[in-house]
Amino acid sequence: MARLMTNLYDVSKCTACRGCVIACKDTNQLSADEMGTFKGSYQTIEDTNGNTFTIMRFSEHEDPVEGVRWNFLKWQCMHCLDPECMKVCPKKAYTKSEWGATVQDPDKCIGCQYCSYACPFGIPKYRKRTDTITKCTLCLERVEEGLKPACTRTCLTGALTFGYRDELLQQAEERVKFLRANGFPRATIYGKLELGSGTNMIYVLTDTPDKFDLPVDPKVSANTWVWQDWVQPYAGWLIPVALAGSAISFVTTRLLNNKDGDHAEGGHE
After folding, report:
1. What percent of the chain has pLDDT over 70?
2. What does the alpha-carbon distance between residue 79 and residue 96 come to, in Å, rounded to a whole number?
3. pLDDT tens digits along 173-215
4. What is the domain partition of the chain in residue ranges?
5. Phi, psi angles (nearest 5°) of residue 147
């Protein structure tokens, strides 16, 4: 099995310049977003969407001791090691590369959005003009040509590092030890064990995940389990059964109505 490769994002080194956002747009030839109304934040785009795979999220959190803390975070697909999007897709449009990228094939996508609802991070987004789902590919084509992802190549501060996941985890652990000893006692790694097996996107955070609006304990919704364990495997015969049930119900209802009508007419004689 090939060694997993991914990005390590160190928030303590990031200046929120948005260079990664522009590089992602340029490399994937994505159109610009319409500017929304100002909502008191430097976050110009509210969430990833069909034309934006990477954003910088800005958030404020109040600490009882340190006061208001202003945090920002690079946000994109987490490339889960056991991706729910791949499990629920009825057209098998999702695949996992040998080195860990979760990739979606737009030619197979039918725009059903099951993956959007299943993703515990809410990443895959619907693109209306193509009637398909889109998301970050971790620059699959660049990596397989021996290049770094566009966002990593552009990062001037070293906040983004691309390499082997096991090596990056060791690097992250050393960085967290340093941060905890130098003013960030709650520094932590995110993505190492989340969702059980972890994600193929690693974060070094200067505080707990909730302070960056990350799900502390991301989980797959119950509806997703019902879909992939019951509906999807048996859809081939559930649909005919449902149709047969509807037909039987229709006929039964008509017979009962006719019978009730006969009794009503008989009662007036």
Report:
1. 79
2. 9
3. 999 999 999 999 999 999 999 999 899 999 999 999 999 999 9
4. 5-223, 234-268
5. -105, 165
- CA torsion angle 127 131 103 203 (round to 10): 20
pLDDT per residue over 46-66, tens digit each?
A: 899 999 999 999 988 887 877
User: Counting beta carbons within 10 angstroms of the beta carbon of residue 161, is it exposed (0 to 12), middle (13 to 18) or buried (19 or more)?
Assistant: buried
**3-class DSSP assignment, residue 46:** coil
pLDDT score at 215 = 93
Tokens of 202: 């690693």
Q: CA-to-CA distance for 228 and 80, rounded, in angstroms?
A: 17
Which of 218, 34, 224 minimizes the C-alpha distance to 114? 224
Instruction: Name the nearest CA neighbour of 16 among 51, 57, 45.
Output: 57
Contact 11, 160 (CB under 8 A): no
Give the whole-angstrom CA distance, residue 242 versus residue 238: 6
pLDDT tens for each residue of 86-110: 999 999 999 999 999 999 999 999 9
Q: Is the dihedral of CA 120, 48, 70, 160 positive or negative?
A: positive
Q: In the Cβ-directed half-sphere of 84, how many Cα atoms lie within 13 Å?
A: 29
Token reading at 199: 């994600």
Name the architecture of domain 5-223.
2-Layer Sandwich (3.30)
Q: Could you tell me the CA-to-CA distances from 72 to 15, 120, 171 in Å, in that order?
A: 9, 20, 21
What pLDDT does residue 86 have?
Answer: 95
